[in-house]
TrEMBL record:
It comes from Sphingomonas mollis. One of its GO terms (molecular function) is 4-(cytidine 5'-diphospho)-2-C-methyl-D-erythritol kinase activity. The keyword Transport does not apply. The gene is ispE. SUPFAM superfamilies: GHMP Kinase, C-terminal domain, Ribosomal protein S5 domain 2-like. It comes from the Bacteria. Belongs to the GHMP kinase family. IspE subfamily. Coiled coil: none annotated. This is 4-diphosphocytidyl-2-C-methyl-D-erythritol kinase. It catalyses: 4-CDP-2-C-methyl-D-erythritol + ATP = 4-CDP-2-C-methyl-D-erythritol 2-phosphate + ADP + H(+).
């Protein structure tokens, strides 16, 4: 049995440059990963099976946005499996279990990280090197941020976010993720972007670039879910925070801290608000 971590993704910065003819948006984004997240287990079986367990497996309510986005997540795991089998000419059946530790539709990878972990697990089980271009091709065909999740490495993403250039820095930095329990739709947040190009990421080391950057999806996401502004305000005010921002299309916000003690104090403040939070580190 293969146990494959599906680490939470964060966008240290996310600049939207322009809307493309294909409906996607041209991005400049700094991808980084937490040391914790969801988990995929995978083994060969007599018949295909896909089960979801963990704290957010039962978080679905009928007709909610969560359910629709989670259905996409389910689809992404099984679609990754199907695309892998087809491209590599493999006929094996698999039992796949997703342990859902991260809130769904929350801007920290979710289904993308799960799909990427599924591809890595299938590749490992089949002795296919993770550098095989076909894995990247499947990832890009399934979603714009899945290639980044496939490598799990800190990177600058351009294009749809799938042209990747590795970056270094900030590994081991104490990281706090906070989600106020409101799911937002990625497509709806992008659709609310005001169309103003506020400029490129500056040069410099990773922290300098991240701090000088922004998340252009924060205003439209905050219009859809005003509580995001409250989360941001609390993280901004946290003692020892060196950077706080919303990740992806939200609603999860994150902060980097100079010490684990400062991070844990901010985590307790999030607990006091009744918000979900994960006290972790940057990979
Ligand atoms: O590729 P993925 O399915 O993850 O994207 C979800 C939605 O987010 C897209 O349908 C699109 O509306 C929006 N998106 C975008 N530009 C990007 C990435 C995503 O407009 N670069």
């Amino acid at each position: 049995m293969i146990v494959e971590p599906a680490p939470a993704k964060i966008n240290l910065a996310l600049h939207v440059r322009h809307r493309r003819p294909d409906g996607y948006h041209e991005l400049e984004t700094l991808f980084a990963f937490a040391t914790e997240g969801d988990e995929i287990t995978l083994e060969t079986a007599d018949a295909d099976a896909f089960d979801i367990t963990g704290p957010f497996a039962a978080a679905l309510t009928p007709s909610s946005i969560q359910e629709r986005e989670e259905a996409t997540n389910d689809n992404l795991v099984t679609r990754a499996r199907n695309a892998f089998r087809e491209l590599f000419g493999i006929t094996d059946k698999y039992r796949i279990t997703l342990t859902k530790n991260l809130p769904i539709a929350s801007g920290i990878g979710g289904g993308s990280a799960d799909a990427a972990a599924t591809l890595r697990a299938l590749a490992r089980l089949s002795n296919i090197p993770l550098t095989d271009q076909r894995l990247t091709d499947i990832a890009a065909s399934l979603g714009a941020d899945i290639p980044a999740c496939l490598t799990g490495r800190t990177a600058l993403g351009t294009g749809r976010g799938d042209d990747l250039a590795d970056l270094t820095g900030l590994a081991g930095t104490p990281l706090l993720l906070v989600n106020p329990g409101v799911a937002v739709s990625t497509a709806a947040v992008f659709a609310g972007w005001d169309g103003v190009d506020r400029g490129a990421l500056p040069d410099g080391d990773l922290l300098t670039r991240a701090r000088a950057g922004r998340n252009d999806l924060e205003p439209p996401a905050s219009r859809l879910a005003p509580v995001i502004a409250s989360v941001r305000a609390q993280l901004d005010a946290a003692s020892g925070a060196i950077l706080s921002r919303m990740s992806g299309s939200g609603a999860t916000c994150f902060a980097l801290f100079d010490t684990a003690t400062a991070r844990d104090a901010a985590a307790a403040d999030a607990d006091a608000q009744g918000w979900w939070r994960l006290a972790t580190t940057l990979a």
